[in-house]
Amino acid sequence: MADPYATLGVPRGATEKDIKSAYRKLAKELHPDRNKDNPKASERFSDVTKAYDLLSDKDKRARFDRGEIDADGNPAMPFGGGFRGSGFNPRGGSSRGPSPGDFEGFGVGDEVDLGDIFEGLFGGMGGARAGGPGGGFGSRRQPPPSRGANVSYRLKVPFADAATLKPQRVGLSDGSTVDLKLPAGVEDGTQMRLKGKGQPGAGGAGDALVTIEIEPHPFFVRDGDDVRLELPVTLDEAVRGAKIKAPTVDGPVMLTVAPGSGSGKVLRLKGRGFSRKSGGRGDQLVALEIQLPEDLGELASRLEGWSDTTRVRNRLGG
């Protein structure tokens, strides 16, 4: 895989937020569901996911930045592949003494265990002399077996389920299912990791990466951690006041409309919104919307000879 920073289009000094934002943008653009006729987009989506997998892990990112692992998470070659021009002769020791260039990168005062260095380069000479298995010249340590590939999923979650953190069942590619507990503060694009639920591998199974997609609602709208609703009320309910049934993400509740309530008045239902990462839940904000009757004849006759003299547009200069 190419440099993960370049793959996500972010600089090496990018913050976690920048990396997450870049990934979400690319994931939405390249997701296979949106590019069924473009196999290159699917390959690019896989590369973007692998890059985010590495850079979102603080430990892996730090090791990559130090050159300890490559972009695929595998250990890098120690000392850049061995000493340069050492002139080592396995039959007769070294053809020359080590030069300063052989130990490039070690500072003054650094402790260097030459036994460990040569053991790493030549498979453990001491082990060969002692008759240990796998010793002798020409042998070398095998890299650790690689884990299986991660598998990406997109899970559509109903609006009310996301607000109330209702568990979701996910079907995996191997035919199994997992009950997924949504995290507090879940939002569109939140990614969840299921350890060991990816492709099998010699070094263990990879992970399943589940991206949450919150479905829109026919009348609820999310506003941060709050939920907004425009609630129609009749003219007589607004004038006289009334108790009316109002829907919430937790189910319907009875709402009191005070006499003389006008369109646009907002009523607040505490704790009926989305969960917060810091704990608790947001509120539901209910905006009243006065609906006049379809047949205005009777209303007009009742208002015959009466007019409202209130200067309702006074503050607008009217």
Protein topology:
Blueprint: H1 4-8, H2 16-30, H3 39-55, H4 58-65, E1 88-89, E2 93-94, H5 114-122, H6 125-129, E3 151-157, H7 159-164, E4 168-171, E5 177-180, E6 191-194, E7 208-214, E8 221-223, E9 226-234, H8 235-240, E10 242-246, E11 253-257, E12 266-269, E13 284-291, H9 297-302
Parallel strand pairs: 3-7, 9-13
Antiparallel strand pairs: 1-2, 4-5, 6-7, 8-9, 10-11, 12-13
Helix pairs in contact: 2-3
Structure description:
The protein is of the alpha+beta class and 318 residues long. Among the domains are: 150-216, HSP40/DNAj peptide-binding domain (Sandwich), CATH 2.60.260.20; 221-316, Sandwich (HSP40/DNAj peptide-binding domain). 24% of the residues lie in helices and 20% in strands. It has nine helices and 13 strands. The chain has helices spanning 4-8, 16-30, 39-55, 58-65, 114-122, 125-129, 159-164, 235-240, 297-302; strands spanning 88-89, 93-94, 151-157, 168-171, 177-180, 191-194, 208-214, 221-223, 226-234, 242-246, 253-257, 266-269, 284-291. The strands form five sheets. A four-stranded mixed sheet has the order 8-9-13-12. Strands 3-7-6 form a three-stranded mixed sheet. A two-stranded antiparallel ribbon has the order 1-2. It starts with a helix and ends in a 16-residue tail after the last helix. The model is unreliable at 79-137 (pLDDT under 50).
